[in-house]
Amino acid sequence: MAGSPIPLTAFEDRLLAEVPDTDLAELLRSRGLPGRRTETWKWSDLRGALRDVRERSRVYASQAEAPISLGGATVLTLKNGIPQAPHGVEPKPVVKGGEKVGSTYVVEDGLVVSFYDHGRDAEDETLPGEELSALAALRPLMSVSVLPGFTHKIVLRRLSDGEGTHGDNVFVTVGEGARATLIETHEITGSPFVNSRTELELDAKSVCERYIVQPAAPGAVLVHSSVLRLDEAKDEETVKLKQMTLALGAQLARHETRLTHLGESEAKIDALYRLSDSLHTDITSHITFEGEDGVTDQLVKGIGDGRSRGVFQGKFLVQRGAQRTDAQMAHHALLLSKGAQINAKPELEIYADDVECAHGNTAGALDTDALFYMRQRGVPEDEAHSLLIDAFGGEVLDRVEDETVREQLAALFGGAA
Amino acid sequence: MLNINNLTVTLGGNKILNGLDLSVPAGEVHAIMGPNGAGKSTLSYTVAGREDYAPTDGDILLEGESILDMSPDERAAKGVFLSFQSPPAIPGVATMNFIRTALNAQRRARGEDEMTSAEFLKVFREHAKTVGLSPEKLKRPFNDGYSGGEKKRMEMLQMALFEPRFCIMDETDSGLDIDALRMVGEVVNSLRGPDRGFLVITHYQRLLDYVKPDRIHVLAGGRIVHSGGPELARELEESGYEQFASEAA
Ligand SMILES: Nc1ncnc2c1ncn2[C@@H]1O[C@H](COP(=O)(O)OP(=O)(O)O)[C@@H](O)[C@H]1O
Ligand SMILES: [Mg+2]
């Protein structure tokens, strides 16, 4: 590893004691956690936010009311990173080389959940900039499989409390021709550091709606890395993913999505964030087009008030040979106060010639002409603000097909003023 | 009904209105004419309460009460209505929802009962028909994709619906064809009555053929420099504002 080691923070020292001696450990030792001086984290100073020692989180002891529900869904829960056994289902042991390595539950017909005592070998995942994802991959693994041809709705609640640190490692597969609606929540009270990871594999002909819902957590530090793979088309049927993140801020929160189009497949990678006070949200995505005919349509919108900070980093990487890629990225931010800050970096890196790629990025204040007009018609200032803000966020929410989900997201968004 | 005394408004370091006096008694329609940039729209914004057009001197009284300390929405609830020269589009805000929100906010502020959606829908449809806006158009977000003429129709729809006490119409006639002009005349004439006042800003005689004004004022150099009867409009159209502009200097 190049470069001379830097003085590690107390937290990093502590962290390293638990990381196996691999490339990842070496990377952490030489560079520390990503922060201000790391190009891809320069607006989200994780290192700075995590200087002090944190103990491992204790047993989750809070009560939380789910911010969103989904009729007919299987609810799976992680408490401070620890997967909770599904109710009323007997586990079967998972045996490997004569040794029990985990338990598996057939929760419903075509829906299998397994817990493994150990994470996956992270050694081959220490790509630069993915340290947090690789670290989370060391956690005990929870896998969720929607078997081929089945349709399932799943709500995955991540409950966190205290002021310690924990992580989780979830692997979801949607089998060939299967349909899944997956809602993932981050329900955080207190001030923990949560390093969370979802790996999502969409097999041929599968369709997935995915929602990530993170209510405001003013004391918490959260990194949620998602690693997504979309299989290529089969029998002229493409994989379809619609992802929507609603992020309402934390002391520091980063929602990072790394998606690979293996071939012809369609993705929406939308996000909506709304921040007040000194909340922070970072929406980072890195979409790789490996095969031909990949389509990504991305709309991210954000609202900043108080002294908050919103970050959007979007990258499309179109590899050589990924012809007929169609990739659209838009980020629009609305600033409600002088103290609010938005940093945005849209990036295109294209190595194929027959592609359609575009990005747009704007930041502005509420339209004062529209505001005065509304008030001239008798609408009080606060109400006029809400109407304009709801209209701004509505453009993203309108892309959510499921009406009950859309309404719940809209209510969470509206309530985040 | 509306009394404006010594109104002085400074924008970007320039005195746009400079001691303007104007009185419109209840039941009357007054027209304001004047060269481009004279401050006609400024006057309308100041009366409506736009914050960055607040006067540095003078007063505006509505039925004897100063409205200067009132917010734009409070003034609207008191019955001040401005038909905008260039109404904005409000993307993402549904037209009927917005207008109903506005109407009920005014009613709330006046201590009146809110309109139910059924009541609202009924009057809304009536007025939409009068001003010639199709239900298809009205399904769009507010003024979204509307032509200049359609936006003016939308202004008249709201004026008819809100039944304001005092209406300021800022170049509502500009860019309208004859049919639309007639419609504007109809809306104004149907609202005209002993308790209501109008201030009609225009460049053209033709609107005044439909809406007979009681008085015509010439605004130049930041104040009313000349006032006269309805015949003044034709005179101005023929000889221009030049003679009065020099009076102002
Ligand atoms: N917000 C503003 N800031 C600075 N100057 C303005 C502003 N609004 C209008 N003005 C200036 O005030 C003058 C009068 O404008 P306006 O009231 O629109 O005139 P009219 O409606 O009579 O054509 C113009 O010189 C215009 O440039
Ligand atoms: Mg004007």
From TrEMBL, chain A:
Q: What InterPro entries is this protein classified in?
A: Fe-S_cluster_assembly_SufBD, SUF_FeS_clus_asmbl_SufBD_core, SUF_FeS_clus_asmbl_SufBD_sf
As given in the record, the signal peptide range reads none
GO BP terms in the entry: iron-sulfur cluster assembly
Which residue ranges does the record assign to the SUF system FeS cluster assembly SufBD core domain? Answer: 167-392
Please give one Pfam family short name: SUFBD_core
In terms of PANTHER family, this protein maps to: PROTEIN ABCI7, CHLOROPLASTIC
Q: What is this protein called?
A: SUF system FeS cluster assembly SufBD core domain-containing protein
Native source species? Parvularcula mediterranea
TrEMBL record, chain B:
Tell me the PROSITE patterns matching this sequence: ABC_TRANSPORTER_1, ABC_TRANSPORTER_2
Q: Which Gene3D superfamilies match?
A: P-loop containing nucleotide triphosphate hydrolases
Q: Where is the ABC transporter domain?
A: 2-246
Give yes or no: UniProt keyword Nucleotide-binding: yes
- A Pfam family that the UniProt record links to this protein: ABC_tran
Protein keywords: ATP-binding, Nucleotide-binding
The answer, when asked if Nucleotide-binding is one of the entry's keywords, is yes
Molecular function GO labels: ATP binding; ATP hydrolysis activity
- Superkingdom classification of source: Bacteria
Give the protein family.
Belongs to the ABC transporter superfamily. Ycf16 family.
PANTHER family according to UniProt: ABC TRANSPORTER I FAMILY MEMBER 6, CHLOROPLASTIC (PTHR43204:SF1)
Q: What is this protein called?
A: Fe-S cluster assembly ATPase SufC
Q: Which organism is it from?
A: Parvularcula mediterranea
UniProt lineage: Bacteria, Pseudomonadati, Pseudomonadota, Alphaproteobacteria, Parvularculales
